[in-house]
Fold this protein.
Amino acid sequence: MFYRKKILLNLLNAFGGRLNKISFIKLLFLFSVSDEARARPYYEFVPYDYGAFSFTADSDINGMKRDGIIDEDVASKEFLLKYFDKRFYRITDGDSEKIENLYQNFHDKNCWDLIKTTYQLYPYYAKNSKIRKYITKQIQSKIKKIVSDNSKTILFDIGYEGKSLEAYLNLLIKNNIKTLIDVRKNPVSMKYGFSKNLLTARTSDLGIEYTHLPELGIESEKRQSLSSFEDYQNLFSNYEAKNLRQNTESIKNIYNIVMKNKKVALTCFEADKNYCHRYRIVNYMSDIYPHKFEVVHL
């Protein structure tokens, strides 16, 4: 079992093995933001319908429901802990202390108290909230400072290598990206959230349009023998000379989307743009449409 799942179970156990679903997620969020010593929290969050939400935690909870560890009371909208054994779900003393502190501070708070607290302390996560009465002018002002709302036309590029789904989505949100264009030949991934169906669903949940252009991808077998930077550059030069020049309609399609939506991102796997064909697309478009948009690497 992943350690992060043990955090979920210990948190639920500390609150008596029964928690309102929204309260559970808000408490997990408060636990995660308190974990400043870690380079990356066990769970990361995005602004969603009721504030901070983790798709990864939701997936883990659903998995433990299928395994019979957690149950859900639909009528009361609560998660119930059906099985807990400290021998199997042991966590560090530091994490146990954080959970105990959460219990001391919030055991008598309902879900609306927790929502209000998280909105006030972490206003960015209230950005997409459907509970408008909790979003004060002060919170709105803080959100505007975090989320770019400038009028510039920008073509971004982003790779998901080394990023959690939530960290990746937050980059899209904070840069006010309207359309995500996937240029993978085969948009499948062993990493949670980055296969086409899930990525389409999650971006749609956040008001971001997803478009897949497989014709601009590179067959995986062409990458198998690459071992040096020079190998990659030779592959990409050949790709630009043949693939890009033969797909003028797809390039024009991207350009039209950029002109319409102003903030658009091309995406693929590699974190380093110099090892990914998406950056050749960006450069190619900059050459044939000079001074029409800015280019930003995320």
Notes: The chain is about 45% helix and 15% strand. The longest strand covers residues 154-159.
